[in-house]
Description:
The protein has helices spanning 3-18, 32-39, 122-127, and strands spanning 43-46, 63-70, 98-107, 113-121. The protein is an alpha+beta fold.
Amino acid sequence: MDSGRITAWVCHEIIENMFEWKLDASNEQPGDEWNRVWASMQNRDIPNASSLSLPLDLNLGKALHATISEAPLQYVDYLYLSGEECPLCSVSTTHTDRLPASLNLEFDQIKGKIGMCAWVHRDCFEKLELSEEPAPIPW
Ligand SMILES: [Zn+2]
């Protein structure tokens, strides 16, 4: 069995599940505007990726590296935001000052990165250091 291909397939499946892009009936591709807006968002480093509280029940191993960027508010309807819990502090974001965010994660059991979106507390987000890495663009 070719484990490299299996890994890629699993990763693809996860991404399909994590991002539920509600593209309209014309199935239009995200255009330049989409790319430009996402790339302009602040990207921040999460120092202790392994302590993140993530709604993942897949065995991906330990989170090795993670960054988080604010998700553009105008695109919030396109995002699948799972649950109300802030992944940075594990406390509910319901009725708090929160913002939609896109997390980009690397795990030790798979190759490549996984993207997912979640609500985070504005305070938790702003406490993190700005990342040197550019904000990732969900295709
Ligand atoms: Zn929080």
